[in-house]
Amino acid sequence: MVKGKLELVICGAAGGIGQPLSLLLKQSDLISHLALFDVVNAPGVAADLSHINTKSTVTGHGKDQMDEAMKGAHTVVIPAGVPRKPGMSRDDLFKINAGIVRDLAEGVAKNCPGANVLVISNPVNSTVPIVCEVLKQHGVFNPRKVFGVSTLDAVRASRFSFETNSSIPPSSRVTVVGGHSGTTIVPLLSQLPNNFVGSLSKEELEKLTYRIQFGGDEVVKAKDGAGSATLSMAFAGARFTLAVLQATVGGKTGLIESTYVNLAADADATREFKAKTGLEYFAQDVEFGPEGVQRIVPLPTLSAYEQGLLEVAVKELKVNITKGTAFITDNSKI
Ligand SMILES: NC(=O)c1ccc[n+]([C@@H]2O[C@H](COP(=O)([O-])OP(=O)(O)OC[C@H]3O[C@@H](n4cnc5c(N)ncnc54)[C@H](O)[C@@H]3O)[C@@H](O)[C@H]2O)c1
């Protein structure tokens, strides 16, 4: 197999997110080898993408070929697992996806222990702690290199804010903190320019916030049993992955995205927050650097409304984090 300078692996590459995400990443010159791993259909997707005349070589890896796909990879993106059906919460996916993500994290520890790991599989609030605990058990955990991809919340926040008031460009980046599910999603709309929040009534602000928190449900309902967000997620996943690559190998500085990380990634910046909330994981603005997380950007001053949302989020996050961590450290409790 041709091994290029920068190998990026997509686990679950033949899925609803995996395919369009692979297509978007095939367009990046930063990647020399795109390795597509899935338990079904990976060779077909790889053959198809490999005809596109961009720089990267594409290889497909089936069920028993995880190790060869991951060997020496720079970055591993994980959109593997089952998506939601109408009426399901992200937490309902835990039973199946926890085991899938654990096995993939074992593969990372064994084959590419220094890789950046980007976790898309839900419930992200719990699957990220699973990855971190597996890497810890293998003695290869680096908190600067494990990311929960919550970018879709920021993408939705930008789009829905623009729909509410067109003076906010749709490309504006909204900081979204907390976690990635329902009320753990806390969009900091007070940070938007032009007194955006001031231009909204209380009801409008609550409606917009709710839509950002539960936007995924709109897609699950409209797809009517055929899955959850895939195309918008692929867009968000590619945006996040490319930011990580541009900072780690592309030499770009100052790139910031909100992402769900272990707070040990920047212990100094988060010490006070951790002591106050008791949380070990939290989504916050992160600036990327050559080693992954360069720094966690301190929380800005929140409005009273956002402070209330944060308190609700913290309570739920604690439960989600404990569930993920215990899945690895104390399997008998699950
Ligand atoms: N982070 C987010 O914002 C976000 C948004 C939408 C969906 N998701 C999550 O992403 C995940 C994937 O969603 P989807 O719509 O692409 O689902 P999908 O069912 O269309 O695709 C999942 C793919 O994973 C593969 N797979 C299953 N087990 C695997 C394993 N052990 N190793 C490798 N591949 C494996 C399947 O064969 C399938 O091709 C779900 O957990 C979903 O909830 C996350």
UniProtKB/TrEMBL annotation:
Superkingdom of source: Eukaryota
Q: Which residues bind NAD(+)?
A: G12, A13, A14, G15, G16, I17, G18, D38, N97, I120, S121, N122, M233
Does the record bear Endoplasmic reticulum in its keywords?
no
Keywords of this protein's UniProt record, alphabetized?
NAD, Oxidoreductase, Tricarboxylic acid cycle
Q: Where do the Lactate/malate dehydrogenase C-terminal domain residues begin and end?
A: 151-327
The Swiss-Prot or TrEMBL record describes its family as follows: Belongs to the LDH/MDH superfamily. MDH type 1 family.
Put simply, this protein is called malate dehydrogenase
Q: What is the organism of origin for this protein?
A: Dissophora globulifera
